[in-house]
Design goal:
The chain has helices spanning 68-71, 93-96, 102-109, 114-129, 141-152, 173-194, 197-211, 224-228, 239-248, 259-269, 275-280, 295-300, 324-327, 335-343, 353-357, 376-385, 401-404, 408-418; strands spanning 5-15, 25-35, 45-49, 76-80, 134-139, 157-163, 363-368, 389-394. The protein has 421 residues and is an alpha/beta fold.
Length: 421
């Protein structure tokens, strides 16, 4: 921990189902962070909503996350572990295996969408701030939650800052993935253009995996389709280099996969720390339009360039497939429940278009023009549909620009929201 930071850990008890406040409860963890010299001052609160779904809030250290020193100049920051993540009654493979049936697990998981996270945040705000509204910084999925917050409880918000996270208000899972595959294809081709030798290296590894039973350290078989999920990281600022250097040490002098490579692939593709990312991914687009029905898998069939025998071999991105829940150890306990969630016909709507159109809470949004994860076209459409919204469009950074910019992005968003820029 940076000694310049003063921190206070908070634990809150909230209903699992906010519609049944006297039913089962869960614990929500949040860490309050202030600049040490200002710890005794009355500073406005800034709630940070992490990307995901299923991502815990960052653990602060010297200069990290990159936006934190900027925020602490003027605010008291609350780093919230959203329900089911980090120290907030985490949903893990072990926890999932304790449920008596897939149906009960699916019902439980249904309470982990953005609407429940907003209800948690409002209970926490009232305990920490009373009737005073606070500000939000929503990164990626945190921006999705922010739009739900503006739909359900705008009275709790003074200003909102969103980075790479304006969702399509009415976009179905099918529309989202129809837009996503071409962006992932282009990003993979850009990666191959930067590192041409990796094109052949990935194909060589895929052939080896198709012909040989290769096991990861946890016992899972490494298959060509699991190998391709390494593309999930290509949308971050250091994504190309992380995958390139991983491939650089992938094969030994005998042409066998190295232990270093297998260990890293297991870690990068195992969902041990964030199974909710996989389990809840397509529920983000449940807006009353029927079941998602494994939309990413269905959409892939319409893009022949993503076939495993296509040339070049294309990696995949932020897509979740049914096979993952049978082949990945950290996801197997969720398999049958994930099928039930994919078949669920009705989900509560997360966004209220009329209320958002009439919004008066200042919303400043950073849209990454070339974002691999969140479609900029949908984001800009949403910006036109939400009142009091100002947008900054840039291709200077990738999806992690709010951190990579070292506070520059947050500073400008605050100026935009305040009318100073």
């Amino acid at each position: 921990m940076n000694p310049a930071y003063a921190t206070v850990d908070h634990v809150f008890t909230v209903p699992l189902d906010h519609a049944a406040p006297h039913g089962p409860t869960i614990q929500i963890f949040a860490r309050e962070v202030t600049d040490a010299p200002q710890a005794g001052r009355q500073l406005p609160w800034l709630l940070y909503l992490q990307g995901g779904p299923g991502g815990k809030s960052p653990r602060p250290s010297a200069g990290s996350p990159g936006w934190l020193p900027q925020a602490l100049k003027t605010h008291r920051v609350l780093l919230l572990d959203q329900r089911g993540t980090g120290r907030s009654t985490p949903v893990t493979a072990r926890a999932a295996s304790r449920f008596a049936s897939p149906a009960r697990l699916a019902d439980h998981l249904g309470h982990f969408r953005a609407d429940s996270i907003v209800a948690d945040a409002e209970l926490i705000r009232r305990q920490l701030c009373g009737d005073e509204p606070w500000e939000i910084l929503g990164q990626s999925y945190g921006g999705f939650i922010t739009l739900t917050y503006l739909s359900q409880a705008p009275e709790g918000l003074r200003a909102c800052y969103v980075t790479g996270g304006l969702p399509g208000l009415s976009a179905t899972a099918d529309e989202v993935y129809a837009r996503t595959y071409p962006r992932v294809r282009d990003r993979v081709l850009d990666f191959y253009a930067r590192y041409p030798d990796d094109t052949a290296r990935l194909r060589e590894i895929a052939r080896l995996l198709a012909a040989t039973d290769v096991r990861l350290p946890d016992g899972d078989r490494l298959t060509p389709h699991r190998l391709r999920t390494l593309g999930l990281g290509l949308g971050m600022g250091d994504g190309f280099e992380r995958i390139h250097w991983l491939l650089d040490e992938s094969l030994d002098e005998e042409g066998k996969l190295t232990d270093t490579f297998l260990h890293q692939v297991m870690t990068l593709t195992g969902f041990t720390d964030n199974p909710l990312f996989a389990v809840m991914q397509e529920t983000l687009y449940g807006q009353g339009a029927g079941p998602s029905g494994w939309a990413a898998s269905r959409a892939m069939a319409t893009f022949p360039e993503f076939a495993e025998d296509a040339d070049p071999l294309l990696l995949t991105g932020e897509m979740i497939y049914p096979w993952m829940f049978r082949e990945i150890k950290g996801l197997r306990p969720f398999a049958a429940a994930a099928d039930l969630l994919a078949e669920r016909p009705h989900w509560p709507r997360l966004y209220d278009p009329r209320r958002l159109a009439a919004n008066r809470v200042p919303l400043a949004a950073l849209v990454y023009h070339d974002d691999m994860y969140v479609d900029s076209g949908l984001s800009l459409r949403t910006a036109r549909e939400v009142g009091a919204t100002r947008v900054w469009i840039t291709n200077e950074w990738e999806h992690d620009g709010v951190t990579a910019s070292g506070g520059c992005a947050l500073s400008r968003l605050m100026d935009l929201a305040a009318g100073r820029a």
